[in-house]
Amino acid sequence: MGGWCGCPFGYAGTRGPFGLTKMIAEISNSLRQIEKRYDVRVLYAVESGSRAWGFASQDSDYDVRFIYVHTRDWYLTIHEGRDVIEEMLPNDLDVSGWDLKKALKLLQKSNPPLLEWLYSPIIYQENGEFMVKLRNIASTGYSAKHCAHHYLSMAQSNFRTYLQTERVRAKKYLYVLRPLLAARWVREGKGIPPVLFSSLLEEPLDAEVRSAIDDLVAQKMAGNELDDLPRNEVLHQFIVAELSNLADLSGVPHRKIETSDLDALFREFAI
Hints:
Structural class: alpha+beta
Strand order of the largest sheet: 3-4-2-1-5
Radius of gyration: 19 Å
Largest sheet: 5 strands, mixed
Shape: globular
Distance between the termini: 19 Å
Helix content: 40-55%
Mean pLDDT: 90
């Protein structure tokens, strides 16, 4: 198994009586209880969402995501069982996992949320051998086109839905900017985009835009999930321009991971 890996902003805003050390222990205990309750084995567990992205606010939830396997006989049946485990636990702990077979099917489709799990900077539990092989399959076979379309569509949808009024919630800017910069990263042929928002910001940006983004991140992390701000015209115009620049993704390559590679990994770790 593995341990916790930190990042600069991953645990900003730990609330109430639960400090960082206690929260990690609570998460580890919750995963052990899930293994017992569902008779499964957790292969990999990470933080997802704003804490993994590096801009958690004071009242951000913990979004724990994991990949698990059942016992051999669970798979050797004519009836398909439920392949998702979801639990809402005390202390704002949202825990959700996918069965290994489901995860591998989604990986073959280059599912971006799953790819973000694989490269989360905050790892709670990890089978090292399994993850080396899984990440190798992901990095060499994922579809850049599928990922670029996913992130662009997310940015477009969030922009239309949340950023058209005079006052907007601060977090909504980030939920447009992050997928927008991820789509640009993929289109430029740089591979799977980094999970940390700060890594996406390493790309050249206009000084005024970068300053506005830095201010926004600082306000988001210092505030709470309900804070709203006047619409920022610098960011608004930057987003409009980038959405236009990314409209044509025809040159982005498409690939599909071989079923035989995924079958081999499944047989090695699930049966």
